[in-house]
Amino acid sequence: MKKKAVFITNIPSPYRVDFFSYMQKNFPEYEFHIIFSGAGMENRKWSVEMEEIEHYHFLKSKTIIIRKRFDDRYVFIPVGVEKTLNEIAPDVVFAMEYNPTILRAVHWCRKKKIPFISWTDGTLNSEKNIGKVQRLSRSYIIKRAAAFIASSTASREAQIAYGADEKKCFISYLTVDIQKYLYEKPQKTTQNEGLQLLYVGSLIQRKGLDLLLPALAKTPQNIRLRVFWYHEKYDRNTNALCRKKICCKNSAQNLKFLTVWNF
Which of 74, 121, 147, 204: disulfide with 151, CB 3.0–4.6 Å? Predict the structure, then answer.
């Protein structure tokens, strides 16, 4: 009889769905189920191939959006967490992050005496501005977990700082197969154009672009940096202002070219 394992996460994302698909196809001795707290977010316009996975479940939930200037926070208040877990009857639960869905799942695991593994992408730097309640929820979950998975060495450091046993912490790097995105680089047309770097992501504090630019300024090489970002609430004027602020605050002699596109 197959062992049943459940992953609980917030919404379907391309990199997570690829991972879940890999687990289901390569470990047939387990029956993997995935529980999603919600179907999506306004600021996540992802195209996800859900047909790549099976045994997935969407919870009915109410979404609370905490509006911020550049980084809206989405909190899913779920319905039916315990009912869904009872129907699956897992042997182990992978609890990803520390949201209300995970808190209810932790209570269910303790009641049923089912081990759960706490998994996070967060770091001490990305979570330096979280509130007291969020810190308490992390400590509460971590102190009751059977083991821990971190998406980076920095995430592992955060788990240990919140109280995790170092010997029970393991790393599963948050990476994807990039073969589908590779292309043959054209021949250079300009001499000494230097390195070309591409940043794709949100222009928000926790993404660390403010750390990347000063680091580039200290390198001896010529660098061309392109920044692609998306946010549906901001227009071309905001985009131009954002570009101006980035260039002024992080200008450096070796940073030859910087472009910001809002797509």
Answer: 121
